[in-house]
Amino acid sequence: EVQLVESGGGLVQPGRSLRLSCKASGFTFGNYALSWFRQAPGKGLEWVGFIRDKSYGGTTEYAASVKGRFTISRDDSKSIAYLQMNSLKTEDTALYYCTRDTSTLEYWGQGTLVTVSS
Amino acid sequence: DIQMTQSPSSLSASVGDRVTITCQASQDISKYLNWYQQKPGKAPKLLIYDASNLETGVPSRFSGSGSATYFTFTISSLQPEDIGTYYCQQSDNLPFTFGPGTKVDIK
């Protein structure tokens, strides 16, 4: 059974950093891209970015709203993807989801809540 | 960026009713349109991919159609468990964008 479990969320002050993790199981992690999405409270869904698998160079893509501040990485030996979030802003407050693949999103985690507030 | 619009923003229908949601893209996205259902406090669930393909395990009362810029999503006979918010999402061009959602409830 495919499972994705996010962790690392919490309350953080504006300008600070936070790293989210997405632990995967039930599939060959290294063969898949991993994506991050977010959903602000009471709002819709927003794509954050993704990291390709190693056969595609493990390269990354980001939404304009986070480019230069957020970094996605992966550790295939641990089946974990990371979302490093720097220079956080109040508008980054959201539930962050990781998903397997990039475009047709069959598997989602349960999400981890990030609150950016002073 | 490709803008996605959905209509209506919300609807209330009776059990057994046929429900249709439309989604329009600001440019041609071919068949690369997915539909998701999200229930309160839960992650989105993929229902339809590539405009008209039913995801495995999803009831056949759900269907999708369309291409290019205009797409429709239909529930042929609304059931109580179908309440939630439905989102379309284009997967043709980065950044992948979602519609604003359609909230469905039971009358």
Overview of this protein structure:
The complex is a heterodimer of chains A (118) and B (107). By secondary structure, chain A is mainly β. Chain A has strands at residues 3-7, 10-12, 18-25, 34-39, 45-51, 60-62, 70-75, 80-85, 94-100, 112-116. In chain A, the strands form two sheets. In chain A, strands 2-10-9-4-5-6 form a six-stranded mixed β-sheet, with no helix packed on it. A four-stranded antiparallel β-sheet of chain A has the order 1-3-8-7, with no helix packed on it. The N and C termini of chain A lie far apart (40 Å). In chain B, strands 2, 4, 5, 6, 9, 10 and 11 form a seven-stranded mixed β-sheet that branches. The radius of gyration of chain B is 13 Å and the shape is globular. At the A-B interface, strand 5 of A face strand 4, strand 5 and strand 10 of B.
Beta content of chain B comes to over 45%
Please describe the biggest sheet of chain A, giving its number of strands, its sense, and whether it closes into a barrel: 6 strands, mixed
β content of chain A, as a range? over 45%
Oligomer: heterodimer
Count of alpha/pi helices of chain B:
0
Helical amount of chain B: under 10%
Q: How many beta-strand elements of chain B?
A: 11
Radius of gyration of chain B: 13 Å
Rg value of chain A? 13 Å
- CA-CA gap between termini of chain A: 40 Å
Largest interface: A-B, 17 and 22 residues
The assigned structural class of chain A equals mainly beta
Q: Give the averaged pLDDT of chain B, no decimals.
A: 97
Class of secondary structure makeup of chain B: mainly beta
